[in-house]
Known about the structure:
The protein has five helices and five strands; from the N terminus they run ααβββββααα. The protein is an alpha+beta fold. The strands form two sheets. The chain has a three-stranded antiparallel beta sheet with strand order 3-4-5, with helices on one face. The longest helix has 14 residues, at 16-29. The N and C termini lie far apart (76 Å). 6% of the residues are buried.
Amino acid sequence: MNNKYLDQADEFLIDEEKYKAISKQDGELFDEKSYVEHDLINVRRNSLPRNGVNWEILKNKKSVLVLKGVRFSKKERIFLEKPEGLLFLISEYKNGCKNTSQFKRKIKKCM
């Protein structure tokens, strides 16, 4: 049996530009020096009825903390809706804040 696909001696070229974004993303999550994969931490903003909002902190795509928007003042909610606020939530979670009251105290120091 002759297979027409195996008989061809064509070379396949890989477009390296297409795969640069994938390797860059993988490199950010993996520390080559210690060979340890770091946790992926995300913040999701959930809109609620009557202009309510909650923030959910995810660690490796699993919910670890929900911050209720009613616990924050209007100024604090406006700050948390900005990109700086989301970065603040991620950095403070990494530093050890595990509940809403700790986040409130840290926000008041920043403002």
